[in-house]
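Continuing the batch. This is chain 6 of the set; chains 1 through 5 are on the previous pages. Same settings as before, nothing changed between runs. Recording input and output for traceability.
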Amino acid sequence: MCSHQYTLELERTIFNWYYGSDDAVPEPVYNAVVNGLRHDMQVTIPTETSKAVQRMTVGQFGHVMDNEKDHAWVPLFTSQKEMDRGEPSPSVNQSLKGFVESVSQQPDCRGCVINPWGQKLFLPKTLLEMLLGYQPKSHITYVKGSVVDMHVGAIVNAANRRLLGGGGVDGAIHRAAGPKLLDACRALGGCNTGEARITGAYQIAHTDYIIHTVGPVYRGRAEDADLLAACYANSLDLALEHGCSSIAFPGISTGVYGYPVEEAAKVSLSATARWIDSHPDIVMNVYFCCFKDYEMDAYRALEKP
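Output for chain 6:
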């Protein structure tokens, strides 16, 4: 993965964190920050703090900016493009690791704020110091929303065997990606139940790939769970093969294919956890997108003792 990809992944995880619920866990963001620290990710540092940045008050971590000390929080941007979204300012480029190390040596500095114009991320100095020694690990996150909106390496499409579009999430993805997706799917020649295929994302700019997998029509057989589990494992294999470090799943087979949501949640979570356990050296941020409240409820029920 090139340096640009670490920047992109951090921007994506920040977006997904805000897109998720108010109690979204920060581990995917930690993973992206640490990967940037370890792989010479470059950031843009303004040399003059604009008044707009000085007016920042609260970040999602709940830390308040000290308005009496303009430089209590040091702003940084993941790219020049992000910086150019707001007020112009002179700037310099620096490695993220070098920036964090310099911040930790400034006694009056409380931390940094990343991309302060929009979806800003406040990281207090104590957390930055912790991240220098943090060990990234794969993480599963439940998100209330649609895979079409997720900023990830790959989104997963719950497709039919012909791969020619349909209703539900399949139709939504084809509409968002545009007609070239249908042309690409025709060239694949279909897909068997439990298997997965991959295409580009075309007009969906915030993801790199679409992974198409065909879930089972629910009949109450043991084979149903095996095929559904294979959808998740094979999709994760394709994501890894194509260099993705994040992936977003919809509820596979839970629509017109009739798989009970509670059972599908158990299968998807177990299959993904097994895949993560079998790839201990891989860091994959996995998002389960719950379009309906009852889908989210099914996953949260599995967390209860």
